[in-house]
Amino acid sequence: MRHLPHLTYLRSFEAAARYLSFTAASEELNCTQSAVSNHVRSLEEFLGRPLFVRLPRTLALTELGEAYLPSVRRALQEIDIATEALLSQRHRREVVVSCPTSLASLWLAGVLGAFQTQYPEVQVTVHGTVWADVEAEVSDISITIHHVDDIPDGAVQLWSEALALVCAPGFTVDSVPLQDPAQLVNARRIEVMGRPAYWDLVAQYFGLQGFDMAGGSKTDISTLAAELAAQGAGCAVLPRVLVRPYLERGVLVEPFATEIANPWVYCARFKARTPAPSVRLFRSWLLDAAAKVGERG
Fold it and tell me: What is the pTM of this model?
């Protein structure tokens, strides 16, 4: 390791060069005038050449001092900037979350609202995602969807998900209110693209035959599937966490009970091993809220 001058010596030299006064430099650095003078003298001894000309009432930089000062000043500025950046990150009151848009609007919004009522000083930014997550370095916390057999290392499953079959109140099949699972074979159905297995699971659950999606509505947005169902465009199978707000408002109903496990689950990944206090606080809040979803089923 190279032997370098002590950082204190460099700070004393830079301040003294700025003020051309050991006394003024000592006031800025909160030390004695003799300490600054000794620091500069020690630096000069280290370099083997003088940096200042000592005059009766002031200082003057030598030619070496003039040449050395800009590099020292830049180095100290870079140290200050890097240190401030680390401290700002550690004490920042901000959390960045990425989350599938459907879950963000139908579940995370409520979690976030309650959190910011309790902690208004913490700024939470949410990036909505569709299928793919945002860049890995963007978010402190990333919520993603994975098959239960393919959960990535480091991801935490938030809850065990269930599916709900829903439709608008009064939804009919061949002019008859939907009340019997056998009617689903002829019902207008809404499919979430990328999740055709949802309806396959319903068919298996009720032992239905001759089940296909020919002519049904399709969308890659779960919230749109729920809205279409609420408008009477068909019945839909969606994660229960997403349809719960619609059920509570009465714009969707479950025509018959189901207990179907969803093989796709929501998981969370946390970027930093030692997160900032605000991130740690929101992580705890998020996991508590997720535990309540698991309790409700």
Answer: 0.66
Task: State residue 196's pLDDT score.
Answer: 86
Q: How far apart are CA 95 and CA 50, in angstroms?
A: 51
1 located within any domain: no
Q: Which domain holds residue 206?
A: 162-261
Question: Rounded to whole angstroms, how far apart are CA atoms 231 and 197?
Answer: 23
Handedness of CA 172, 177, 181, 185 (dihedral sign): negative
**22-29 and 7-19 helices cross at what angle (nearest 10)?**
130
Does residue 179 sit in the same domain as residue 222? yes
Task: Return the pLDDT at 85.
Answer: 66
Domain count along the chain: 3
Interacting residues of 112 by C-beta distance below 8 A, sequence separation 6+:
124, 126
User: Do 24 and 63 belong together in one domain?
Assistant: yes
Rounded Cα–Cα distance for residues 170 and 148 (Å): 35
Q: How many CB atoms lie within 10 A of CB 232?
A: 14
H or E stretch covering 268: strand 264-270
Q: Which two structure tokens, joined as six digits, stand for 222?
A: 């779960």
Residue 57: alpha-carbon gap to chain centroid? 58
